[in-house]
Every structure is written in C-alpha cells, then in structure tokens.
Design a protein that fits this description.
Number of strands: 12
Number of domains: 3
Strand content: 5-15%
Largest sheet: 4 strands, antiparallel
Radius of gyration: 21 Å
Order of helices and strands: HHEHHEEHHEHHEEHHHHEEEHEEEHH
Distance between the termini: 52 Å
Helix content: 40-55%
Oligomer: single chain
Number of helices: 15
C-alpha cells in the first residue's frame, strides 16, 4: 500500500469521501464510537459535515434530546457519544480515565469520601431541577459550605460523569447543563470487558483504519495489553499493510473510493485527533506542523486529499477566512466547502432573509 492509498482509504472510513455516513447525527457519532468535542461549535460541524444535508440546529437538537451525549469518556476530555453506546463504553473506559485523573484529583484534594458526600447533594439538586449548569451547581454547593474553588468543581463533575451519575442535559442560554444519567440514558444489555474491547476495536478500525495498534491505544485510552486483546478478537477480518516499517491495520472489506476529498475540517477532528503514531502521515512533506496546529488545534483545509491550509470562521462574507500554505495556487473544491459550511451554520439562510 502506498501513502496516497492509505490516506484515500482512511478518508473513506472517516466518512469524508461521500459526506453521508448517515442522515441522522446520532448515527454518525455511533459510527465513530466517540468524537472529541471540547470545542462545541466545531464538534457539531465535525458531525454535520459527514451528513449529506445537516444544519447546526439539527446537531443541537440531537444533543438536547439526549440522542448525543457530551461527556468525558475514553480520555480526560469532552467527547460526543451516542446514547445507545455510552453505558458499555463508559463501563469499559472509566477505570482508565480515573487513573489518568488521579494526579489532578490529588492536587485539588478530591477524595472518594468527598465525592460520595458531594454526589448526594448533586443528586438532590438535579432531581429537583433537571438541567443545571456548572455555575448553578457550584453556587448551590457553596451554599452548603462545599469547597469548589479552582479545578475542584470541574474534577467533581468529571468524576460524576465517570461514575455514570450525570451527563449532559438540555443546553440553557447557550450553556452546557448537567442532568441525571439515568434520566437521559435507557438501560441496555451489559457487555463483558472482553466483548467491549473487541467491539471498541471494531468501531475504531471501521471508522479510522488504516491505523496502528498504538493509534488505537491512544484514542481509546486503553493500555497496550487490552488494546492488543481487542484487535486480536477481530481475527482475520483485519488485514495489514506496512509503510516505512510501520504496520497499519484495516478491514478486508474496505474498498478504495475514487473520489478525492476537499473539505473544511474542524479543530480536533477525528481525521487528526483519532491517531497518534500515524497522524503525521497526512501532513504534506516539508511543512512545519506548528503552522497547522499539529492538525488538531487549528481547523484545516483539505483539497484533493491534501492539507493545503487552515481556516477560521468570520462574521463577513464568505464567513470563512482561509490561510493557504501556498497563496498563489488555486485549490479545487474549496469554494464548495465554504458554501457548505455557510449553509450548515445558518449564514446562507440569514442572507436570504435580508
């Protein structure tokens, strides 16, 4: 396999060659298992751009209905995860995230005893008022003489998410709220750890392959032993290809599409953040990665499968400002991508009503 072929197949599995992983936002998220979502507006675009026709409001509706949950899972950062997947995935990943959170918890003085005490208070508040912001909850805890300064409030809420006590609720005045987990997530069949490992590996390589075991370990937050177990459970369904001595895995059933991808990728998109060891294979040669924010921290522009620049949202026509790596060149598909983002964000509708 050549690098160009790997990139083409990866883009296809990422849902970027057809822009129609599904017509429903929650199904897009389920295809990926989890999608990084600390930048909320960009995370909505990450979902919407993989649908044939979607608007920001469509994704918002799925978040408010609870079909898409925004929570800390896999790694100690925000992710979108579908309601139907969150139980088994949280049961699998929470122990690993807790280990990664131990240092910060110790620094802020969060112990199991404190958490159990505070959780009972949070439960009462959310039982009475179903959707409360972080500010609402901290204010009420302060009234009960509970310390919430610095990172303590954040770590308390993350811990409550990991224990499946709370999850995202209905957004209130453009602010994130929390709700009781059991009020938003229905019961589902319990999976064994072994079955969960194999299922997570299957989701990862179907949505992000070709990729390496180290890539999977990074994305999932698993240790190497468990990551390897999950991969081994897929057996001969996975095949491998080597490039420069690195072994990439992908499903035998994967097919190589002919279509080239041009797109405006959001910051923290899974096309970049879903990998560690092999993230750099998507970068053009001789390009300083810091200019591109390592492909993670800055939204990037794709033209014919190649990273050609960065972009940001602006308030004037065409509502997208692009900084190309080579200003004098013309890149195919970029204008269409701009119009697509304009339509998604509602700017096209605003223009029509002026």
């Amino acid at each position: 396999m050549k690098v160009k072929e790997l990139i083409q197949l990866r883009l296809a599995n990422q849902g970027l060659t057809s822009a129609e992983v599904s017509t429903w936002a929650a199904d897009v998220v389920s295809h990926f298992g989890a999608m990084q979502a600390q930048d909320y507006p960009m995370a909505k675009w990450a979902v919407g751009m993989r649908m044939q026709q979607a608007s920001d409001k469509d994704i918002e509706m799925c978040v408010n209905s609870g079909e898409i949950i925004r929570t800390h899972i896999l790694r100690p950062t925000w992710h979108f995860v579908s309601r139907k997947d969150i139980r088994w995935m949280m049961e699998l990943s929470a122990p690993y995230v807790k280990i990664k959170s131990q240092y910060v918890n110790k620094q802020v003085g969060l112990t199991d005893e404190i958490f159990k005490k505070v959780w009972k208070m949070i439960e009462v508040e959310l039982a009475n008022d179903h959707n409360l912001t972080k500010e609402d909850l901290t204010e009420r805890l302060l009234k009960k003489k509970i310390k919430v300064e610095g990172l303590l409030a954040t770590q308390l809420l993350i811990r409550a998410e990991l224990e499946m006590r709370i999850c995202s609720g209905v957004r209130k005045a453009n602010k994130i709220t929390y709700a009781l987990f059991e009020s938003r997530v229905p019961n589902s069949e319990k999976l064994s750890k072994k079955d969960s490992l194999v299922k997570l590996a299957s989701i990862y390589f179907k949505s992000r392959g070709p990729a390496t075991i180290k890539d999977f370990m990074w994305w999932s937050g698993l240790n190497m032993t468990d990551a390897k177990y999950g991969v081994s459970g897929l057996g001969e369904n996975l095949i491998s290809a080597s490039i420069d001595g690195v072994r990439y895995l992908y499903f035998e059933s994967d097919s190589f599409p002919k279509k080239q991808v041009s797109a405006l990728l959001p910051s923290f998109d899974e096309y970049m953040v879903g990998y560690s060891e092999s993230r750099g294979i998507a970068f053009p040669p001789d390009i300083e990665k810091s200019f591109l924010g390592n492909g993670i921290f800055k939204p990037i522009v794709l033209s014919d499968n190649t990273i050609v620049g960065t972009w940001k949202r602006v308030d004037r026509e065409p509502f997208v400002e692009i900084q190309f790596l080579e200003d004098h060149r013309k890149y195919s598909g970029v204008n269409i991508s701009q119009q697509r983002f304009k339509s998604f964000s509602g700017k096209a509708e605003e223009e029509n009503h002026k």
